[in-house]
Amino acid sequence: xxxxxxxxxxxxxxxxxxxxxxxxxxxxxxxxxxxxxxxxxxxxxxxxxxxxxxxxxxxxxxxxxxxxxxxxxxxxxxxxxxxxxxxxxxxxxxxxxxxxxxxx
Amino acid sequence: xxxxxxxxxxxxxxxxxxxxxxxxxxxxxxxxxxxxxxxxxxxxxxxxxxxxxxxxxxxxxxxxxxxxxxxxxxxxxxxxxxxxxxxxxxxxxxxxxxxxxxxxxxxxxxxxxxxxxxxxxxxxxxxxxxxxxxxxxxxxxxxxxxxxxxxxxxxxxxxxxxxxxxxxxxxxxxxxxxxxxxxxxxxxxxxxxxxxxxxxxxxxxxxxxxxxxxxxxxx
Lengths: 104, 219
Fold this sequence. Notes:
heterodimer, A: mainly alpha, Helix Hairpins, about 75% helix, B: mainly alpha, Four Helix Bundle (Hemerythrin (Met), subunit A)
C-alpha cells in the first residue's frame, strides 16, 4: 500500500473545508459565524494554491498568489467586522436576516 | 514517508474538526477557536508543502490578527454575539443549495479518486518556498501587486475606522420645539437666517430655550 501523500489528498481536503465553509455561510444566520465561514473558504483555496504550486515545480507564483489572498482576507475581515459592529449598533442583533435596510 | 503521512493526517484532522466547530458551535468564541485550529492545521500543511514563508505568514496574519479581531468583536458584543437560531424556517433555500453543493463536491471527489491515477509530488530544490525565494519573486514579478496590496491595506484600515467609529460627528442642532422657530430653522433665503422672530435671533432663542431646559432639569 502506497502511503505517499499525493495532490489528490490535498484536493479532497480543500474540497471538504470549502464545503464546510460554504454550508456554514448558507445555513447559519449569525454574521460573525458567516464571516468565519468565509475565512474557511479562503483558507481552503489557499491550501489548494500552495499544493498545486508544489506540484508544478519550477515557479513559486502560486505561493505569491496565496500571499496576496492572505492580505486581502485580512483587509476583508477588518472592514467586515467594522460593518458588523455598526450593524449591531443599528439593530442590536447579529442576525443577518435583519439586514433589510436596502429592501424596498 | 510514514512521518509525512502522519503529519498530513494530523493536520487534516485539525482542519476538518476546527471547521466543523466553526459552523456548529452556538458560541462564536468557540467558533473562533475552531477557526484557530483550522488555521494551525493549514499552516502545518503549508510546512509540509515546502512553503515555510507562507506558513509563517498564515500564523502571523490569521492566528495573530484575524482570530484576535474576531474574539475582540465577540467580547464587545457580549452575550448578544451568540444568536438563538432555533428555527431555520428562513434558511430552506440555503439548505437546498448547500445540499446540492455537497452532492456536487462528493461526485467530483468520487470521479477524482476513481481514476486511480496518482500524481505524486516530485522532488524539489531546497530554496522552494523559502523567504528569500518568495521575497525575490514578490519584489520582481509581483511588485505592482505588492504595492497595490499596501494601498489596499491602508484603505481597509481607514475604511474600518470610518465605519466603526462610535458616533458620527453630529452638528450640534438643538431640537426646537416651537413650530415657528422650526420653520425658520432652515431658511430658504439667506436674509431669513438673521430674521428676528420674537425677541432675538434664532441662535439667541435656542440658547435661551436650552438654558431654560437646563434650569428645569436642575430644579
